[in-house]
């Protein structure tokens, strides 16, 4: 190696106070080794205790207010529930916005909170605001439930099937549920696919008239005969006696003997004599099947502080010994721990293989001692980081593991720079700790500032808001922590290990190393040096070529050759297909459609070898909805017009196509389903594939509907935009009832007529009883055939206060209409939501959004002047995150510039250092083009990491150049920068190759599960190659160009002002 001066007055020197710390560890191997063991062993122990999950747990900052209002129309729910709650809570401090949905029989108000607010405090404020509402909730509505949304992550789903009936499956699944809840690690278990219990008391109008009963009298008699009531106590001399009436009925049969009428002769009429009492399930139409058998799902979930692997292992051990009832089969439908182990294992395998390749290369290039301790910087930094990650609330997940791979090259780069400089000092003749101290001192400032600039580049990700902001905030925490530990390792641990001069390499390894070293040195001295000198002499032409290179990269993006995708699809092992028909569609139509989709699924599976899909579950008449219940637990939404299919996919190598491609083929095979409002295919694990979403706001409902219809039609003209749906679907046909003059004259009110009709066609809830873990409603109603006939409705009679009855058509006017199936509002304003998917095979979501914004939205706004259109959902998150990231990136750039300027004591030189970053990014873009990948957020992380390596290497290069100028004032700028490039070539070469080799396994990973991570490897591996040429050739050219401009400025500006001074 070339000789390096020991001049102490050098730009990269170490401050005296830091020198003593470095010297202490360099002269004290025991302290250095103990520090190393503390970081490795302590980190390993903490790592074993870290919670493990697939993705970081999110805190959505949401409070849900839910109010069931059985039998009410969406308009009634909106008027009496959602609008009133919306107005009451909207002004509470800390509330970001209020989103409400009024649907048939249910009102849901979602209160979104601002960042950094206490959700529990605001929950109390929301509850207090609702309690102050007068006459709330309405008489027939249930009490509002106010809960802080606690996201639960799936752990495992069990599938129970039986050829038997629903009751038998219900018994078997609830036995299993109880057994699972008894396990120490399990706290959240839900059974899906079983209808709710209900005691139904059906009595005909004929029976009521026969015994002179009214509906209200019968309801009162049942309530008064089924109750538990304390009647006080008797305080006698012999002791106190409690008085209690205990007549609460707990089963349908116990209701039969309730006396409802006493006849004149003393005979009694019991409820069982006049009514049909059914103790069974609600009359919701529901079919859940798997492989032709009745099925139910048992979902096991976890809260934030629980461990996926612990719960999974305990459940698996339990299932090995659990005995299921006869004719019931229980199998694992999905196991999140398998998915987690596979993904984390994939990252670990790629990381380990990359480390092995890096170490092998270092062994061939460096003495075994230097190669070993340079490579050891990786495990020391990684394990050391684990000591602190738990304190920051970081778990072991795909994002944190991904962060470790990102930072791999930077950690190695620092160790190579320091190790190489220590080696240079040893070759100069220094020995032991003196060489180690001098080596660290020579590069301390550029290495330290280089790492700080990388931290600053990643830091903005910690302040992103929204869903993706929470997911990605883990990444900068891990990166910054690892980099901080890496500084400790290279400055305090590495010098102690390299303070010994004895070589570890023996024959034949030392012969191979000397041969390779000599060839590299010859290449450096004869080829690289000449090339750098040529580029620097023709620096302006070289810069034109450089800018041309940037132009090529920009052209690839502008022309769409390289597409920009905000977030890539994350491969999943499950595909969901949801179909929605207009409200009121008969159940058999819905069932026929979902079975058609099921047939298409099997056909597609056969076409790809028959092994892609492991299991299929079909659900007609219901759908699982998330977040409505306490703690965000899943709940079942019953409706005749909805259905879904869930596909569980096999892993590789049984499955050779991605979930996205499989979904595309199924969609193509299914085609259009006549009459369906929407068919939604979900194959994206994280974003749930909702790529385009817009909120349309207009004060006029009719114009809002027209605007939605026109936008739907415009979107449908683009073949790459699919699955277009909106929230303005028509609701059920409805009869609107208003009193006539005859009804008013008879003394009736709207409330009296509405109540009597509600009793006739919906029924009345008598009471609720607790039976085991089930809360069971007791409903009094007319028989089903009477409730399902429109002729019976028009023949209804309304009872007056004196007991006489008049025909409904006499006292009321009936008109038919159709309302919306749901009424949505945001901050009290009526809103319609349009959602659509983008086929990413033909267009990126970003390009699709730009196309919509350019070709559809302006024309729509011109046709409807008062129409407001906002992006929503995934699109809104993308827009907000990009805007936030741009602002934070500017701050980060200012911080980075300030740090480099402080080190260089120059305003201009930091721009030279940073000039390599856009060229490295351009190389990454070209790498994406050559390997056929879109540029995504994952790619940007790789580019940020690449920037850290580029800045670090550029800093050390320019620091070496400045030291050469200080040591030899006669040395020209051109000769000094060429010599600096020659001296830095070996370290840049080692950094480039080790970084590329470390990412090679990921770069050529064929697993479809890892495809979304590959763009990061592309950015780093290809970008570092291009960036190395920039550092070696264009940065020297820029240094000389900067000197040219300085000289010109000095000639143009009068010397007496001394405004410009040469900084070299």
Mind explaining what this structure looks like?
With 1064 residues, the chain is of the alpha+beta class. It has 6 domains: 7-49 and 366-506, Multidrug efflux transporter AcrB transmembrane fold; 61-148, Multidrug efflux transporter AcrB pore domain (Alpha-Beta Plaits), CATH 3.30.70.1430; 197-231 and 241-281, Multidrug efflux transporter AcrB TolC docking domain, DN and DC subdomains, CATH 3.30.2090.10; 524-561 and 906-1064, Multidrug efflux transporter AcrB transmembrane domain (Multidrug efflux transporter AcrB transmembrane fold), CATH 1.20.1640.10; 573-683, 2-Layer Sandwich (Alpha-Beta Plaits); 732-823, 2-Layer Sandwich (Multidrug efflux transporter AcrB TolC docking domain, DN and DC subdomains). It has 34 helices and 32 strands. The strands form 8 sheets. Strands 1, 2, 3, 4, 21, 22, 29, 30 and 31 form a 9-stranded antiparallel sheet that branches. Strands 5, 6, 13, 14, 15, 17, 18, 19 and 20 form a 9-stranded antiparallel sheet that branches. Strands 12-7-25-24 form a 4-stranded mixed sheet. The longest helix has 39 residues, at 1014-1052. The two termini are 25 Å apart. Mean pLDDT is 84; it is low at 1-10 and 626-634.
